[in-house]
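assembly run, all chains below
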Amino acid sequence: DTAVSQTPKYLVTQMGNDKSIKCEQNLGHDTMYWYKQDSKKFLKIMFSYNNKELIINETVPNRFSPKSPDKAHLNLHINSLELGDSAVYFCASSHRLAGAQIADTQYFGPGTRLTVL
Amino acid sequence: TQLLEQSPQFLSIQEGENLTVYCNSSSVFSSLQWYRQEPGEGPVLLVTVVTGGEVKKLKRLTFQFGDARKDSSLHITAAQPGDTGLYLCAGLVAYNFNKFYFGSGTKLNVKP
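ok done. output:
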């Protein structure tokens, strides 16, 4: 009964390959996020989806493509992997309050550690 | 350049000591959150502060939001080894689709 789950937990791959990370939440939330945490532990938002609609798209290379088949799932596909893509990728979910000034709780998955060789 | 700067970056103290972690920005946030992250896991929310000057207490942890809503602090009294972890502040920019900006993080180690 995990709230936010990600697969795989670890991903080791060669430069130039294409890979996907999957995320699922069973909290009934309508907003999901992808974050990247670098080696210095800095957590930066990449994308956010609300009701399957892309609402935040940070300055991320277009090799990264999120896909939300339904409200409970948000997958991340990465093409032509580069060494600099090595990081821990976190999925998160929350309720979204339109025009909200108060942040709702974000629930994070356990992370996917991606290593590009 | 990060929107939220945390200090110190690293803190190693003995059990029973007090400590304060700071989260500073030149930007105004509509609300601010503190998370704790343990190795191999995702961040977990500790608290959300909303009003300028607000103080919230969670057992031995005291959180304060600056009057101008640009900064925050986390004070831990009588730290315990179980407090060890990475502490992250996150600010919400209002009317920006729930876009959170995370701080640079403070890694706390409490030695028994």
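The mean pLDDT of chain A is 90.

Chain A has no helices and eleven strands.

not gonna interpret more than that til we talk
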